[in-house]
Amino acid sequence: MLKAVIFDMDGVIIDREPFQLIICLRLFKDLNINITEDEYNTFTGVSNTSMWTTLKNKYGLKDTVSELVKHHTEAAINYLEENEEKPIPGVVEILESLRNNDIKIALASSSPMEGIRQVLDKFQISEYFQAVISGENLERGKPAPDIFLNAAKMLKVEPEYCIVIEDSNHGVTAAKTAGMKCIGFQNPNSGNQNLEVADLIVESMKELNFNRIKNI
């Protein structure tokens, strides 16, 4: 029985990857490191801390991980403040449908909490979520299941009654490892993500509604 739906944010609620790529390429250039788009796509769904820890170790960056994450977060916040972005088509309708059917809703994102709150406020959708969690606060990020297990705990719902909506391989893996059902959104802007272990794969959020989600 469906009791809760847990949304990822980047690539599911906001099409963030295109401008995140722009931001990161600028940061990589400033740091004088050469990273291809394919290598960048391997970090889709993981936290900024995890990404910058890997890059610092690989390229011997002088800045601390905390400094690198701070620069990244500030650049992303500034970009979103200066540019017009809208929710991915279909998302708000899904949120409204779930709320109207008394389904609990959580947001579980690898992004920093400051960035999450900015998106929720900008889109005016905070009211839909009973729980919001950032992977930056966890010892293990996606593909570990911790973020989704914590979201379920905050909602007071057992994992088997939760469905996750994700756009990345790391996220889908985390959801399934948590013992939850998972809908994979094949967002073309999220890179070539392997979502084959998801219980349902859609190419548009407009394909989803309460009835389709509850029947998974």
Write the layout of secondary structure elements.
Blueprint: E1 4-7, H1 17-30, H2 37-41, H3 48-59, H4 65-82, H5 91-100, E2 104-109, H6 113-123, E3 131-134, H7 146-155, E4 162-166, H8 169-177, E5 181-185, E6 200-202, H9 210-214
Parallel strand pairs: 1-2, 1-4, 2-3, 4-5, 5-6
Describe the structure.
By secondary structure, the chain is α/β, with parallel strands linked by helices. It is built from nine helices and six strands, in the order E-H-H-H-H-H-E-H-E-H-E-H-E-E-H. A six-stranded parallel β-sheet has the order 3-2-1-4-5-6, with helices on both faces. Helix 8 (169-177) links the parallel strand 4 and strand 5 (181-185). The longest helix has 18 residues, at 65-82. The protein is globular and about 50 Å long.
H-E string: EHHHHHEHEHEHEEH
Count of distinct strands: 6
The shape, in one word, is: globular
Helical stretch count?
9
Largest sheet: 6 strands, parallel
User: What is the share of helical residues?
Assistant: 40-55%
The chain-level mean pLDDT equals: 93
Q: Which structural class should the secondary elements be placed in?
A: alpha/beta
